[in-house]
């Protein structure tokens, strides 16, 4: 996506199966884009949606570039109510379902024509460009490429109108991308395109563009650090849009104030190993930059735009995520976002596959042959190098899954780089909750969650806990109820439970819930046999108040009332 000033990956929206092939060609062009297909009409999309109009409006308002494979009219009608501020909108394009036409509709300042040309080139069709300035000059002057920022949009619009009206222009400063543009250039022109860092208002005859070539080194966090940086830039007579990134010592990587400051200023925060002096640290990060000190901060001005990704390194991130039971709709949006940001993905192959599809640049580590602690350490090793790492669990990562192992690995480690990693645990819908929801509300009152696996704890503990939980009349949710290596345990567990519960107690068996071929059964405790259960089953055993009622579709609702009878 070089040259495109996009903040977000595009969404490719399709309404029918016939568009999928074109959508996939577009995805090759924009590998980070995801294909959204209408539920029930499209198989093989990355995600599904119910309503075309509300999906489109939601993406538009979230500033997501939209490529819709349908008639332009449908998109115009759908977005009409959301169109308000033309200066801040994402690119919106329509592409004919057979790939024979591409029409940029909205987002001229967000680079829609650049995308239209890229798509046109990929599909071997001409892009339907209608923007006058763009047609005349072959580029949108108001949308400079990555590394450059326009000083004043309104001023810029007037400037482009002047050029369209016949004025000629000359260029001051370094603007390599304009070399290909067909500008009415004239060394004696009154109108100038000025490329420079300095802070000053654009003159009437000028298009002022700031190269993002400034770095400020920050050594500590303070409440007013953002203001402090702004003051330093003012003192140095540098325009704020010229700021490309902040640089700090990697010892300060975890300080929240630094990250907030970078966010407030809308720039990247990068880290370097502390050299002998701050000046040396900056010198190593942006060789050849002009250094000066203002308001006690070190300001570095490079001769060309700075690519923050090339400066020092970023803070590594490790997210332990829960996929939910399996169905994409049951995955929380924060998890989806994290998966799209991931550079490395670790987990059991089945779960990693469930979390996909992934882009070719994402590294998948299928770690079936490793035990949990080893996988957790591997994740930290990668994140401590500055990478963005995701560890995948099914259901919720904190329920008999990777989150605790990751924290244990961190607890054991004395490596400061591991402790500075941005660690996030993102929840998911656990199997007991997904199963309960399908059965009704069996967990509607107090309940107890247990793993019946004695791989990591002695069997005697399991029996004691079962006995006490059953005695306390808690609803019981069993994870890992049985496996080939643990064939007899479930039978013994049920014997313990039966000491305290009547044979009529409802039991819910959810197998592969939220996955293809899911089954849900309701039996009684008396009927329940270990053969009805396997390692992909969730077992919910009711309490004395759990009851059932018939569903109109022939099934059974199971619920545990909120109240509990008073006991003498
Ligand atoms: N972290 C997971 C649980 C891992 S333990 C979660 O929160 O759901 C694995 C056990 O969870 C399995 O043996 C099974 O008992 C249960 N389980 C996981 N996914 C399931 C599903 N989709 N349907 C039914 N049970 C499931």
UniProtKB/TrEMBL annotation:
**Stretches assigned to the Cobalamin synthesis G N-terminal domain:** 55-133
For the Tetrapyrrole methylase domain, which residue ranges apply? 318-528
In Gene Ontology terms, what is a biological process of this protein? methylation
Q: What is its EC number?
A: 2.1.1.131
Q: Write out the GO MF terms.
A: precorrin-3B C17-methyltransferase activity
Which pathway, metabolic or otherwise, does it act in? Cofactor biosynthesis; adenosylcobalamin biosynthesis
**Keyword Amino-acid biosynthesis appears in the UniProt entry:** no
What InterPro entries does its record include? 4pyrrol_Mease, 4pyrrol_Methylase_sf, 4pyrrole_Mease_sub1, 4pyrrole_Mease_sub2, CbiG_N, Cbl_synth_CobJ/CibH_dom, GbiG_N_sf, Precorrin_MeTrfase
Q: Which CDD domains does this chain map to?
A: Precorrin_3B_C17_MT
User: Which key words are in the record?
Assistant: Cobalamin biosynthesis, Methyltransferase, S-adenosyl-L-methionine, Transferase
**Domain of life of the organism encoding this protein:** Bacteria
* Annotated protein name in UniProt: Precorrin-3B C(17)-methyltransferase
């Amino acid at each position: 996506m070089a040259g495109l000033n996009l903040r977000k990956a595009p969404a490719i929206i399709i309404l029918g199966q016939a568009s999928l092939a074109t959508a996939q060609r577009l995805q090759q062009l924009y590998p980070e884009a995801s294909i959204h297909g209408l539920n029930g009409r499209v198989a093989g999309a990355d995600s599904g949606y119910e309503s075309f109009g509300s999906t489109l409006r939601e993406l538009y308002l979230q500033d997501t570039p939209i490529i819709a494979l349908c008639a332009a009219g449908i998109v115009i009608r759908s977005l009409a109510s959301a169109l308000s501020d033309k200066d801040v909108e994402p690119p919106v394009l329509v592409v004919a379902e057979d790939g024979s036409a591409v029409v940029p509709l909205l987002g001229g300042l967000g680079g829609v024509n650049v995308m239209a040309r890229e798509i046109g080139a990929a599909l071997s069709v001409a892009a339907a460009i209608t923007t006058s300035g763009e047609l005349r000059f072959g580029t949108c002057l108001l949308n400079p490429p990555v590394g450059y920022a326009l000083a004043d949009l309104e001023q810029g619009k007037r400037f482009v109108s002047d050029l369209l009206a016949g004025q000629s222009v000359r260029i001051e400063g370094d603007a390599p991308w304009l070399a290909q543009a067909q500008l009415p250039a004239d060394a004696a022109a009154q109108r100038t395109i000025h490329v420079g860092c300095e802070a000053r208002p654009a003159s009437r005859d000028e298009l002022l563009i700031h190269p993002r070539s400034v770095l400020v080194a920050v050594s500590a966090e303070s409440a007013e650090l953002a203001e402090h940086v702004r003051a330093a830039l003012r003192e140095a007579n540098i325009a704020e849009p010229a700021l490309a990134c902040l640089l700090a010592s990697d010892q300060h990587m975890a300080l929240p104030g630094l990250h907030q400051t970078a966010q407030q200023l809308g720039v990247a925060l990068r880290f370097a190993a502390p050299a002998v002096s701050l000046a040396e640290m900056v010198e190593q990060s942006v060789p050849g930059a002009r250094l000066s000190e203002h308001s006690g901060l070190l300001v570095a001005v490079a001769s060309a735009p700075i690519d923050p990704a090339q400066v020092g390194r970023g803070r590594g991130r490790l997210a332990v995520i829960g996929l939910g039971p399996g169905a994409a709709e049951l995955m929380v949006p924060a998890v989806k976002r994290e998966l799209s940001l991931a550079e490395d993905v670790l987990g059991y192959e089945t779960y990693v596959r469930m979390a996909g599809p992934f882009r070719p640049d994402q590294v998948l580590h299928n770690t079936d042959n490793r035990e949990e602690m080893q996988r957790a350490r591997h994740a930290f090793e990668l994140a401590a190098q500055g990478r963005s790492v995701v560890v995948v669990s099914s259901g919720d990562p904190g329920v008999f899954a990777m989150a605790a192992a990751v924290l244990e690995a961190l607890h054991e480690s004395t490596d400061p780089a591991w402790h500075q990693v941005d660690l996030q645990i993102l929840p998911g819908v656990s199997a007991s909750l997904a199963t309960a929801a399908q059965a009704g509300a069996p967990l509607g009152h107090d309940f107890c969650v247990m793993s019946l696996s004695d791989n990591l704890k002695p069997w005697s503990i399991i029996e004691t806990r079962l006995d006490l939980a059953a005695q306390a009349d808690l609803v019981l949710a069993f994870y890992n109820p049985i496996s080939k290596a643990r064939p007899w345990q479930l039978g013994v567990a049920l014997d313990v439970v039966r000491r305290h519960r009547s044979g009529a107690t409802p039991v819910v068996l959810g197998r592969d819930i939220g996955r293809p071929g899911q089954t849900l059964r309701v039996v009684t405790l008396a009927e329940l046999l270990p053969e009805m259960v396997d390692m992909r089953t969730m077992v919910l055993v009711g309490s004395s108040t759990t009851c059932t009622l018939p569903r109109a579709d022939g099934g059974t609702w199971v619920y545990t009332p909120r109240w509990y009878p008073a006991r003498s």
